[in-house]
Specification:
Elements (H helix, E strand, L loop, with lengths): L1 H10 L6 H4 L2 H8 L10 E6 L3 E6 L2 E3 L5 E3 L3 E6 L3 E9 L1 H11 L20 H25 L6 E9 L5 E5 L5 E3 L6 E5 L5 H7 L6 H18 L7 E7 L7 E5 L4 H20 L36
Antiparallel strand pairs: 1-2, 1-10, 2-11, 3-4, 5-6, 6-7, 7-8, 8-9, 11-12
Helix pairs in contact: 4-5, 6-7, 7-8
Length: about 325
Amino acid sequence: MMFLEGLRRRRGPKPLPAAAKRGPLLLLIRCAAPSLGTAMTYCVGIRLDAGLVFMSDSRTNAGLDQFSTFRKMMIYEKPNDRFMVLLSAGNLSISQSVREILQVEKIDAGEEEPITIWNAKSLFDATRVLGSAVRRVYRQDGLALKAAGIDFNATMVFGGQIKGEAMRLFLVYAAGNFIEATRETPYFQIGESKYGKPVLDRMITPATPLNQAAKCALVSMDSTLKSNLTAGLPLDLLVYSEGRFESDHVICIDEHNPYFQMIRTTWGQKLREVFSGIEDPRWEGGDTEHPLMVRSGRYEPMRKIHHPGEKIV
């Protein structure tokens, strides 16, 4: 109880959280919640006409001063039958539980054999199994996590190819529901996605060659690493060619990898060169093909306020 009294003195009259009323142990769990597996990361999966590209970082953080390395990619391969890749982001303990259960999870198929990721006849059905595994973990741990003040937070990218159908790519949410990539949206990101999205939007189409898509994924990751500390090396990169049902293009990239070092240096250098080659805005007009000071046909420039009683509305 001395611990609770100390909290009261530090917080003043503000009421204690509900967890404190149920005892100091649960309050300690809530205060330590980030160290129980809160994770941020960056992963991307790309579906192309020629194949699939998957990339993930390996950083898990529980605050500014506690970083750990955990791999976010899982590969499921049954040669000449199926090839699947899972990327995960969110709460690390949830993701690890889902990955463990996924290998043995079954969903009912009526009078037929229960469906698993190893016998599913379509990647859609395999993703249904993944959704079932997510919901199983929620049933097991959801209430306890909620009592400790921890959100059930996990998102996953799951893709690959099963013999007899085309390659497919899915984004799976924390409720176990999912959506599928299309030709209009051929990639999915999870985790800290905003920094690496612009280059994907500009470069990736279904017709993009595999090697160019792999390069684009690396540039996307470099942009994320440059701007955000919650993603970090080493990286896992996998490239799958359509119809092979296996892949040996799998690499773990650390800070000493020569190709990634070149990407990091060259991308920044080329961006600066392109930026310098763009004409500066000319506020006073002058000889230019691209004038800035052109009045809008619909909107006025912002008006200035000169005294307290003036209104611009």
